[in-house]
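agent> Task received from the user: take the single chain below, predict its 3D structure, and emit structure tokens. No templates, no multimer pairing.
agent> Plan: (1) validate residues, (2) run structure prediction, (3) serialize to tokens, (4) report one or two observations.
agent> Step 1 OK, no nonstandard residues flagged.
tool_call: predict_structure(input=
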Amino acid sequence: MMGKIIFYEDKNFGGRHYECSNDCSDLHTMFNRCQSIRVESGMFMIYDRPNFMGNQFFARRGEYSDYMRMMGMNDCVRSCRHIPMHRGNFRMRMYERADMGGQMMELNDDCPNLMDRFHMSDFNSCNVMDGHWLMYEQPNYRGRHYYVSPGEYRRYNDWGSMNPKIGSIRRVMDVIFYEERDFLGPSVECTSECRDLLCQLNHCNSIRVESGAFMIYESLEFAGTQYFLRKGDYPDYHSWMGCNDSIRSCRLIPAQESGAFTMRLYERIEFGGQVMDLADDCPNVAERFHKSDIFSCNVKGGHWLFYEHPHYRGKMYLIRPGVYNRFSEWGGSTARVGSIRRIMDY
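)
tool_result: status=success, residues=346
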């Protein structure tokens, strides 16, 4: 999935502008200067020299009305690189010497302070096996930063640095949870699933989904009231129809081809009674099957949402491939299902 970034010659998105959706190794012919930037989708690394060289700046979806003042950089933007989203594990190895020599340290999660964890701050080479990462010169994700994608970096200048000093490293992730409204305060990033956000955030008042779709839960271990979030910005808990600022776990919903959706619904627990097959959306279960209580189901393909009321209203429940012997196994307090929808096209 490509992103979209727009470069403007003047502040506050004025003057001539140029749109880009992928890597561009030389932007010099497109505009003379750049003083504001709008990232409409995706994430990008911006460079002040051609061919992805020089100072780097990481830009998420959002508006940068005064790019130079906000980032402390000049108006010289000469190349940009789209950062693709990564599904799966993150893994990289850091080495104290060039050409993968000397002591080796392995990472598979964020590290706010490399000195505290490894008792080292100079790294001369690295091997990124999985995922996309940002290296920062200083601890706690501050200072100049450098983007590294899967591959080997035999010396520090291969990732664009002038010295081997690395203070912190973080993964480039899909969904961000913020303690305060309007994407402020402490934040936590996640790429697949998290069973316990409580150990990292006291509460959650806003969420930004960079790509994909997620189910978020009010309780730990994917329990409690559930909310379905597509790619987009959610500036307060009312925007995801929440009742409070309690979000304790989340789960990524994998993309699914439309032809692979199939499930069976049963009127009794443990797959007893009448059988009802479903391969498409159902806005009103009672009208279609003349029943509104579903006690068990077998999902053979695709990810679905059950809603308490017809026309996709009320409490919702994520239904993944597998067998559900009784309604409590998908989180329902009763067997009432008013409508069913496939999760697709995100």
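agent> Step 4: summary for the user.
The first strand starts at residue 4 and ends at 10.
agent> Done.
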